[in-house]
Design brief:
- The protein is of the alpha/beta class.
- The chain has one domain: Alpha-Beta Complex (Spore Coat Polysaccharide Biosynthesis Protein SpsA, Chain A), CATH 3.90.550.
- The strands form two sheets. It has a seven-stranded mixed sheet with strand order 3-2-1-4-7-5-8, sandwiched between helices.
- Helix 5 packs parallel to helix 8.
- The longest helix is centred in the last third of the chain and has 19 residues.
């Protein structure tokens, strides 16, 4: 099994982080995986940092609240694993899906994307209808504008070969929630092998995504990505 890094971006997650870290550490111990856990604190105003330090994991502190994309990128730069995962702090996708993802990497894929929209996936606890509708609409725009053949770009559980992650970080520009599309678009440009893997997904209360403000920013990010591609920004 390859060595693994698990990146958890966190902004004001003092309440959800203990359960998540306990579960991730327990899974790593039981599976015998050679793994490290890195929490990236995105300028939290609560006890996120002290909670993470209490569990003995590595902590990276951003210079203020920079965004999820920035946090994941900083985690990639800190990671030492051959395979790098990032997972939302609410663990909506169970950490147990690490095993099938690692198998897909061993089968030759460079990037594995958790998907709630392919056969075999299951939304065990569904999100509100309007969020589901907005997610489907956004992915339709992603396919149309970028040409990415990914059914679910926004699920917060993905894994990358270390070499691929570092090449993507060199080129990425988006700090906010639109970063997933930019990461995958750069990967497509670099001709990395990408696959979607079905997962179980459990909606968790306390999301930091604003349905109006952040959705609007993500749509603008799509246009931004295309212009940057045409200008050669990602070379």
């Amino acid at each position: 099994m390859p060595s693994v890094s698990v990146i958890i971006p966190a902004f004001n997650e003092e309440k959800r982080l203990p359960k998540t870290l306990e579960r991730v550490k327990e899974y790593i111990a039981k599976s015998g995986t050679d793994a490290e856990i890195i929490v990236v604190d995105d300028g939290s105003s609560d006890a996120t940092v002290s909670v993470a330090e209490k569990y003995g994991v590595a902590v990276v502190r951003n210079p203020g609240n920079r965004g999820k994309g920035y946090s994941v990128a900083q985690g990639f730069l800190k990671a030492s694993g051959e395979i790098i995962f990032f997972s939302d702090a609410d663990l909506s996708t169970p950490i147990e899906f690490m095993a099938p993802f690692l198998k897909l990497h061993n089968d030759g894929f460079d990037i594995v994307v958790a998907s709630r929209a392919v056969p075999g996936s299951a939304k065990k606890i569904k999100q509100p209808f309007y969020r589901d509708f907005m997610g489907r609409t956004f992915n339709l725009f992603v396919k149309t504008v970028t040409g990415l053949k990914i059914n679910d770009t926004q699920c917060g559980f993905k894994s990358f070969r270390r070499s691929c992650a570092l090449e993507i970080v060199k080129r990425r520009t988006i700090d906010g929630f639109g970063f997933d599309v930019e990461f995958l678009y750069i990967a497509k440009m670099l001709k990395y092998k990408i696959c979607e893997s079905p997962v179980e997904w459990f909606d968790a209360p306390g999301t930091k995504v604003s349905p109006l403000r952040d959705s609007a920013k993500m749509f603008f990010n799509l246009i931004e990505i295309v212009f940057k591609r045409l200008s050669g920004r990602y070379k």
